[in-house]
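Encode chain A's predicted structure.
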Amino acid sequence: MSKYLFVYLSICLLVCMSSCNSEDAIYREYQCFFVFDTQLHPMPCQLTSIIGNPGHFCKVEASIGNGARHIKTTRNYDGATEDVLLSTDRENQYRCVLGANNCIIIGTSSYDNVMIAYEGQCSNCLEQYGGTRYPLSWEKNGTQLHCNKCGRTYDINNGTVVSEGGGRQLYRYQAAFDGQLIRAWN
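Encoded structure for chain A:
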């Protein structure tokens, strides 16, 4: 009986340790809280169209113009931009905080069909230099992100460095889609 208790406790310990490790992978240096209602903005809205489309990502930046909140999206595969007015009380009830420099990158990984969100700044430059002047740009038909400061290039589908020199992978936020809302948070 004690052998089974030991196995059970060992499994519980492993589960606890792995859940802590996945939680540690979430970037917390800068706050991220984003909610987007796809029912209020159906397709062809760029952000809504990334759902269920592996390899499709959007950069998301928030702004206020003429007294109204907007988000600007930039698609990875063609660089197309869209300005989305957030005009209803329902969508304006959520505050919008988008990481280090008001930019996140969100989409569906083509490797495992999971929604993921990244910090929109180069993680290696944020760590090494501080500040928030290290935006990432689309490269290789939107399959990679590039930092002009350090020259690193990242795979958009898993966040790893694919250029020479290695380094830290992209900082990641939690992301989910519940059938109506796209969310990213830490």
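The longest strand covers residues 57-65.
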